[in-house]
Amino acid sequence: MSSRSVSIAYYDPFGVAPHVIRDIQSRLPLRNLHWNHPPRPLRTIATLSVNLYEDTLADGPQAPQHQIPGLLDTPYMRIILVKCEDNDTYRASVRKIIREWFTSKVASQRDSTEWMLFFFDPHSATGTSSAASSLRFKSSVFNKIKADFNTSSKEDRCVLVKMGLDPADDQKMWTDAMISIRDGILDAFGKRVQMYEDEVKKMEAKKTIPGWNFATFFVMKEGLALAFEHVSLLEDALIQYDELDATFMQLLQDNTITFFQTVGFNPDSTPKLLTRDSDSKVRHSILENNISLFDFRCYLFSRQASLLLLLMSTSTSPTMTALRISQFLLRTRNFALETSKMLVSNGKNPFLVANWVYGIIQEVMDATEVQPRVIQGGRTRDVAEGRAELLLLARSSIEQLAARKGWYADDTGNNNFEDVSLVKDEAATTSKEEEDELLDKYLNPKLREIINNQESFMTSYMDLTDSARAFYESADRTRSVDKLRAQMAVIKYHRKEYEAAVTLIASLPQLYLHQGWELISTNLYVIYADCLFNLGRKEEYLKVALQIIASKKIVSKDLVSELCLRVIEICADERKADAEPLSFPLGSLFTTSLGRKITVSEVEEDKFSVKLQVENPFDVDWPMDSISVRLAEPAGMKYTVLFESNSKVLLKAGSTSELQLWTTHSVPGVYEIDNIEFKLGALVLVKDYHGSEAGVLPNQRMRMYQQPGSMNVKLSTARSIRLDAPKRVTVEVHTGWNEVVRAKVTARSASSGTRIVVGDAKGAVAAEGAADEEEEDARKPLEVKGVAGAPSTVEVGAVGRESVVYLTMPYVAEVDVKELYLRVIVEFSTSSGESYSVAVVRHVSISLSLAVNVQDIFKSTALFSKFSISCVGLVVPLRVLSGELVECADYTVKGGRGTIGRDYVAFPKQPVTFSYRIERSASYMAPQRKKVPPEPLLLKIKYRRLEDEMRHTISELVRRKIAEGEYERRLSKYQMLVELHILALMKVDLAAYGFLDRIVMGPYVRAQWESLLSIVEEADRASLEQILEQIYTNLAREPEEVLGTLTKELVIPVEVPTVQVLFTLELLYTPVALDPYAPAEPSPMQFVFSDKVFYVGHPIPITVRLSSSRGWAPRNIPDIFSTSAIEFSYDVTASADNWLISGKKKGHFTVSDAVFEVELLILPLKHGNLLLPTIEVRPSSKAHESISAEVEYKNSAESVLVLPEVSNVNLAVE
């Protein structure tokens, strides 16, 4: 389809058209026209087609003239071709002919029309003088015509066409002529647009006046649209029709249109909707109010469709082509739906309407069939979506006609997924015979073939569905694709094509469920399940059937019961076949409620239980192989405890069952629910509190606690630690009331960089309360065996009741850590045949609680060592019970006064100090011991942490209070729980305890015990609270005697230091008396502050005496001083403000047994107590700097009294 062109009519009364029109036609169509009509933006017309035709003067008066310009189809320009030889002829006849033509063809037209006059000169422009004379004459005729007919000096409507010009002049002549034609057409077009717009505005202003004629408005508005279309401004033309359509729909909605006398409907088998706009009579029918509503809507849509098709064919890019096609397809869909609804609501036969809809869709699809090749790479999604929508509309028409014969796509008499229904839910207005006759006459040939038989209908239906699905996939319309897949799956299911149905439907139910379409999802699940069951795919059927059962609220009870029985039967079969486990949410089937307490066994068993209520809402009994509840620690989900039913469980139909679940695995701590599991064959129903349902299910916390008498595990380091011995940790296993037949102990370190050497464990056993770390006689050796394939596990044999098994295990710390995190699991079986396990996690402190610093002072005959014992950290004081430095064969030790029989408390920054005098024994230099390194001394320190003392005191008090009288039987099971809680709450001033030896606790606050009291039986709470109040108020101020198990001993090997040479230095001087005339032996009262008194400015003679000793030299290293003379230097120094030194204050000497002396004079410069000069000794050569040496300076920190030289003091008293 091509755009309508601009018409130019020429009138040739003198027969010159063959010489002129050919040149005009060769320069058509017009190109690159620019139309500027404010306020519209500049429009560019790339190509303007021109219809050039010959007009006659006789046609003028006979042409139909209408009062409304919109109905006129007049040319935009009229041209008259004139040929005249002389002025006489012009005046006699030619001028009259021109005037008649102008009057009848130009001046009488309502539509704006431009005109031009072409004067033809048949003679050549070159030749003889006579020819030139003739040309001048003819030019005067042409000038006369211009003077007569040019209506304005600015517009020259007369064109002189000369023959025989050279090519350049000829081209210029025709270029100017075509420019005049172009400008004339644009001028006429602009005037027409302005005229139409003015008329339209006038009519729109009267729209609210009763009796307003929409038909006249339509014709005028369409005239504007046609004007745009004539000059190829197709988008502007389409806008006018869209505005007409919007106005019409609004009037139709307001029910203000009255000019349609009939609805009308032409049930043609081939409607040819896209060619309806070429019917010129339609516009006259509209104006005469002689058109039906149906024909009007079809005409309006056909005009819009024609413009869209023109825009498609003239688009310059694939993207714009695709956009136009998608718009066209979308408009077609909306038009078909709206029009068919209008026809059916007005009583038209719905089957003929469906036939008409199918026909126009077929016509539109054929019109756009060739376009995909053009739009490749463009907006193909929009095009694909539009074609899919039309295909579904065509499918709906087929369904409607097939339903008339009782054929349905799903073979059930209905379509669960129908897109659009064109059938009105009311009785047909025609009889069956009339319908048959009408359909036989007007039915589309393609439709006739489709509904010829049911198989043909189903084939076409599925083909259309597949085609639409393919288009939707190209358009990325996933939901529409899923919908069509569901429809195809339903069809395949009813046709018993189960394999194909399963392939299509597999993922659809879940998709619809996530989108909130639960009913559709459940219906699809039912179909899916039936397909799987018929195919024998029981495992997959089980998953789908459970999903349907979970939707029990929207599924019939009979179907749910049937599915439940099938599921139970399949699970029983899979139990025998050992199938793979299938997990499904428990909460979707059953309602569960877990008790809020973990209960200990009432008999002497290491068992715990929880109560679980299960509601079975089905009409079927559910037999369960097992039911379990797993609890887990809240922090990090590290440790879990599993409670299980002892046997199979039957959940009665429609009732609530209360179950008690047991565990023999004891891991004391606070727990949350991790999951609840029901097992039936391979089916595992799970309620996961920390998985996919985390944060959705309400959780609860429960405490598992040990009761006195049960298996217990304690961890500690050795009570006596020797720093040079391998590091060990002790695992104490208290059997309690259990007669252990066999036990496995697994120990693992959770600290990075540490490792427990379980394979080197040593074992011992003793009766409960009879053994101490120091009382080795009370323990008996116990055989410990390794377990193959388990390097962290050892095995021990039978152990009796009320016994303690000691397993001492070395550990290796590759990094410096203060605490050792250990997890110990004891798995044991008893004489009753039961198997149990206990797991504990403890922090074992491996860092020393005290620090020891030593300060050594060398003397020529002895070594004085001062040991300072301080606590590590700022909050844990220590009680030092004793400190002993044990002598050996090489050394004798004296001192340590006050270290035995009395204890001292070491506070932060307040260490406990012990001093010792160390001398070499007589056998130190014995020949047989000279080559052997000296033995170290052993410093043994016994101590206790004050915190341990208080914890033990409080624990003993709790035990005694609970054991008193009537409480023991009922409350003993809470003893360990109360101990742990009160120790966790304990806030005691350790410093006050260290000074006063009294434990001071605050008052009892019930809020601090709420978490513990909540898990105590209600009957026991009051009694337990009474005990707690007694503990707080009657806590003994004086702690009872601390048990020896709290005392730790640290043994430190002390290497006695050695030096190769010891220098003894001494300053010798004589004190001077206060009075030179005093006796030689003055009384003590004659001296002030010191017995060494001197005067300022008086020199003091001194002697520096230096001796050396090699008595502290290592015995196993040769004496270098006996083989060579090694020289040292001395340097006497003093503060320049206090002393002047005269003499050889620096010098050298050789190490020997002789005494070296130097005489010096020192002069005090000020009075007061002045420190004596210091003396430094160092090797004279750098080669001897490696020699170890110590200096004993006897005058270190010694001062002398220096007095001012004053003989008399005068005092004046007033």
TrEMBL record:
Domain DUF7076 positions: 579-690
Domain TRAPPC10/Trs130 N-terminal: start-end pairs: 1-313
Record localization: Golgi apparatus
Alphabetical list of Pfam families matching this protein: DUF7076, DUF7077, NTS_TR130, TRAPPC10, TRAPPC10_1st
Domain of life: Eukaryota
Keywords tagged on the record: Golgi apparatus, Transport
Residue span, Trs130 NTS domain: 328-557
Keyword Cell cycle in record: no
Primary location class: Golgi
Domain TRAPPC10/Trs130 C-terminal: 1053-1203
PANTHER family linked: EPILEPSY HOLOPROSENCEPHALY CANDIDATE 1/TMEM1 (PTHR13251), TRAFFICKING PROTEIN PARTICLE COMPLEX SUBUNIT 10 (PTHR13251:SF3)
Protein name listed in UniProt: Trafficking protein particle complex subunit 10
Species in which this protein is naturally found: Myxozyma melibiosi
